[in-house]
Specification:
The structure is a homotetramer of 340-residue chains. Chain A is an alpha/beta fold and 340 residues long. Chain A is built from 13 helices and 15 strands. Helices cover 39% and strands 24% of the residues of chain A. In chain A, the strands form three sheets. Chain A has a seven-stranded mixed β-sheet with strand order 12-11-7-10-9-8-15. A six-stranded parallel β-sheet of chain A has the order 3-2-1-4-5-6, sandwiched between helices. In chain A, helix 1 links the parallel strand 1 and strand 2. Strand 13 of chain A pairs antiparallel with strand 12 of chain D.
């Protein structure tokens, strides 16, 4: 490792996911965590203090710093497009948490403003960087299972978010399935059809909010691939994140992760493993680190970031199609939509 | 075990599945395999000779035997309804391989003729008797996972049947998915909606026959349960038969079966198991024996057989709905259809 | 399968293991179960009646039957050598449950009397016929893991036999470890050294009988192979029967068997399997059938039985060496002993 | 987390294991890596430069720094006792890689000099800090499996060290088994007996050095516990590190670790996992970090380090006993030796 100039990076948002990124930024040998900005200044100060960064209550203060190389946008969704515009407009690289926005028209408008200048804009679809999913993807790409024919994704949260979160979430498809829709696109970029079914089977407050607590989605790829996604907003046995890629010559599967390999053998059951990692902060800890490594590398080398703005937009198009399909009982053709 | 009069049973059809039943009948302590009938008389003779039964070229010869207690119908599908009518009309119990018929109108006509006299008629949905699926079903029924919310079924044949078989099969939904549709009904008898997607990804001759080689189905149950079924006509790693039941308090999963527990550890991979059982004759060997046990017990005690004629009819209704959905791109409501 | 004359076989002993063999003999297409002999005549009658065989209170009655082809000796251990002598002397094939006898001098005397006429005498080391262990053995023999270097055997009974059984058992090494010693010889016939350690950690009555409830044995093979055997007379999670063969190019492992593949996922543990098969009758059901198939085949074709009398004697020599080692704290050289 | 004074720590030795510790020290929020010392000054400089520490060619330079709080001793084994004496004599805390020394007399002499002043001296038995082994240990201590009766340890290196290393290693028992002997003592501190068998089955140069390439050890604990350890200097499928604790009420097992959960399904094998972590640097990466956390915590709070000097001495006593047992074919009683 030769000494390299550290990148000056600002973090926007010091909530749950912001703090994950803060710790990873602080530990990264190529990064100087320069700023932590949050309108809740005490929170910004707490996180900034921990890692020797400066705290800010507004992003304007941060953008005024001419030494800034990149920003990580972990603030609430409605702020994303403006912050993206502001950063990209100043030539500052961006790693933005998903989604770009919940309104596809705002996203398209942002796309128009960016005018293709999105090489240094990366979308935080963290699961693409999970070591298991990434390894599985590499092996599929290398032809290990032949032509990819079917993809099975099972994704269940441990418990539903609070009512206030649900109300602002954009619904299960835009908030939760969107990760699985991006995972589908990771393997099959060209999706042509979406069919979705929602159900309400356990949560009154989710139903009261007009949202579903369970869903099953089917996608069709341009080469006839079929994708099955199963979602639930709860899971008694912990965060459930699995993927199977089935091809003409075999199958590859990524299973859930227990904290250790310890298994117990007793009178009622044998070979029982410890409960899975509780939620995304633990399950995808390695993914967040790897995602950051990739972003830093892209910024340093000025090579295009991936997944990028178009991937963020495409995932939202699919989520919108899913919502429409669930509402109408019809399969939605998305090919044209993705081309726009 | 007290000595009991053995039931005199005839076997109609001495093909692949007929021979499985012949061996099980011959080994069953409560059964006298009296007849094996097949228009290919040499085949009937070969099987009959092996187990000390009489051979017949026609079913009329067999029905003329006044000592007959039950028949197993393993002859080609188009013969099923007439043989059912003939046996039930004579007060002879029936275990009939699925499906009743490929034409729902013929099935309804048969139902009308039987006029509810179906207590001693069992449909050969063998998978319900698989030890793993049966145990899983008992545990779900006992409330182990709370309310059942989602069911995931993955079912892939090792290799597609020959073109001639495909042509007469009624299509992937009526021929292959029908087993999974019955499995869905085993757990969730009240299915209200079917959505299906077919694809052609590997077999030209299946496509040429106007059939799909791959399919994904989504069912909705009357209480909001969502069922996902994934089918393929081929599988490089052997017969793939899996099921997951997800409920509010946990999940139960039945995985594939390797011939032994031996696992290998080498330089390229570790913990590798032997390839799965090649096809249904091996994978469901125990299921066929258990199915026969249950049939014999129902006949002996004159208690209603299960799964019965209505289950056979319901599975076909769902398969027809799947075919219609795949053709039209619409979700098909089946509630009314199942009530008829 | 062409029709063949069925072998007339008598069963000596109608206890627990005798009944396993009775059922397998009755179901075997090449066997006529002619006699069941037991001094407890009611037991003999019960078993004989179930399968249409004749019952006898003495073995003399049975030996008087000139049509007898073979006997299965499942009577108490002290009767084995006399019954072997009687049968072999009459040219009748023998499948004898282990051990030949608990006294190596009686075994040597029997060997002298037999004068090498042991081709049609098979010892009932059932585990060699377990599908998993047999498959693993075939793969080791085929060179899959290179030269065999280490063998790890773990073998635990679910619960200790009653005090009366323990008192007459010959001790843990001759009664329980003997199966593992034969398994070691199955893979490494030439054992040159035995070291054994016994312990008393849970059962007062086993200790009171002067026996151990736990043991660890180490064997050395003629080519430097090291074998580790771990035994316990109890196991909270069921019958524990495992084997690992480690070689220069890899490892093969055979694990325990759950009744089904069902796994449960709950709040306290995930991937838990059903408790293992409770004891040898269930765990080795397939092994007993396969053992009988092999015996019948050897008798029918007049080819030497395996494992044979020498294997039974060798296992006892190793068990005696283990007992001596545990008593003296010394490694016992057995090479000479096995050559005698 | 409140701000705390960082501990000034020096690293002695910048070889393979030294570099692991250097990276962990540099990333630890409570540590200031002040010095890296190595007689190979270029190596010291390389590592020191990477993390902003000072480089030294001698330990004297380092000990002259009055601000030093602790040292990590990763230099060659023969230097350990003198460095321990020097540091402890100056009131500087020590984390020392195992073993203390290969000569028990030097260790005893060092113990006499230290005169019990070993509270701030920790031995680097890293495996005690492996998340899986540590969790398993906690669960055994909490009584989950009842009284501990048997411990099975399997530990195989991927490939033998070079001849030069083997020659200076003290032999397989002092160099390799010593980790397993400490693991045994982690669960059963009071070991009373050691029996060991060595073998040469694959490596000529190991045999030429008068060492074994394979070994099996049996230990007896003070309460009758039996421990089985299986070692090999090679393993085709990667670093093999497993442990089973068997008790009166159940069993707990820690298995090997694959880099990801990905499993492959093909025509020759199914459920195959990726090869295990190649060697200790990868397998025990988390253990090294956790070990350091524990050391820092003990130094900061002035609470006794564990494992300590006595544990280091006890492991060597057991290793010496194993070597003697393997040479003499006798079980060695060690109770007295451990009390000294």
């Amino acid at each position: 490792m030769t000494a390299q100039k550290k990148l000056n990076i600002a973090l926007f948002g010091s909530g749950r996911i912001g703090r994950v990124h803060a710790a990873n930024l602080a530990a990264h040998p190529g990064v100087n965590l320069a700023w932590v900005a949050d309108p809740v200044v005490d929170s910004a100060r707490e996180v900034a203090g921990r890692y020797g960064a400066r705290a800010a209550g507004t992003t304007d203060e941060v953008f005024a710093d001419p030494s800034l190389d990149a920003v990580l946008i972990c603030s609430p969704t409605p702020t994303h497009v403006d912050l993206i515009r502001a950063a990209i407009g100043r030539g500052i690289a961006v790693l933005c948490e998903k989604p770009i926005d919940l309104d596809i028209e705002r996203v398209r408008s942002c796309a128009a403003d960016l005018a293709g200048n999105t090489s240094q804009l990366m979308m935080g679809f963290n699961r693409r960087f999970d070591p298991a999913f990434a390894a599985l993807h590499r092996r599929v790409a290398a032809g290990e299972i032949g032509r990819l024919e079917q993809l099975t994704i099972i994704s269940r949260d441990p418990a539903p978010a609070p009512a206030a979160y649900i109300a602002a979430s954009g619904g299960i498809f835009r908030d939760m399935s969107i990760h699985d829709l991006d995972m589908a696109r990771f393997f099959i970029p060209h999706i042509v059809e979406v069919t979705a079914h929602g159900a309400n089977v356990f949560s009154d407050y989710v139903a009261d909010a007009g949202d579903f607590d369970s869903a099953v989605l089917t996608l069709r790829g341009g080469d006839g691939e079929l994708v099955s996604i199963t979602n639930s907003r709860h899971s008694a046995y912990g965060y459930d994140q699995r993927l199977e890629a089935f091809g003409g010559q075999g199958m590859l599967r990524a299973d859930n992760i227990s904290p250790t390999t310890v298994r117990s053998f007793g009178t009622l059951a044998v070979e029982g493993a410890d409960p899975y990692e509780p939620f995304f902060l633990e399950r995808y800890a390695a993914a967040y680190r790897s995602e950051l490594d990739r972003f830093i590398e892209s910024v340093r080398t000025r090579t295009p970031c991936s997944p990028g703005f178009d991937d963020g937009m495409a995932a939202l198009v699919l989520a919108d199609a899913a919502a429409e399909s669930a509402a109408t009982g019809k399969t939605i053709t998305v090919e044209g939509a993705l081309q726009k």
